[in-house]
Amino acid sequence: MQDAQETTVSRKDILIRLLYTILYLFVFEIIKLIIQLIVLFQYIYLFITLSHSDRVRNFSNKLCTYTYDIMRYLTLNKNQRPFPFSDFPPVMEEPVEEVAFR
């Protein structure tokens, strides 16, 4: 019986997590806008120079990993709060070597 009491969650803990969730929902919306701007920039850059920007690709790859980390927290699949309350997540996958258009 004591184990059941130790695993129960207080409403205060739920409310605190909800407040962090609301904060990260705002962060998520900002990141969505940034990703849209990156996509637009990357295609304009590609159209003008006929090559992609490695710096932008690497940044967007890190941003995607961070977004995934936030989504896991928002959907209650992760307990550790995302950056800046913890370390920035490591990149899950490296970008492809060459971008294909066919």
Structure overview:
With 102 residues, this protein is mostly helical. The protein has one domain. The chain is built from three helices and no strands. It is elongated and about 60 Å long. The model has no long low-confidence stretch (mean pLDDT 89).
Largest sheet: none
User: How big a fraction of the residues is strand?
Assistant: under 5%
> How many H/I helices?
3
Query: Over all CA atoms, what is the radius of gyration?
Result: 19 Å
Shape: elongated
Poorly predicted residue ranges: none
Look at the helices and sheets and give the structural class: mainly alpha
Q: How many β-strands, per DSSP?
A: 0
Question: What is the average of the pLDDT values?
Answer: 89
Order of helices and strands: HHH
Report helical residue fraction.
55-70%
End-to-end CA span = 62 Å
Number of domains as seen in the coordinates: 1
Quick gist of this model?
The protein contains 3 helices and no strands. It has 102 residues and is mainly alpha-helical.
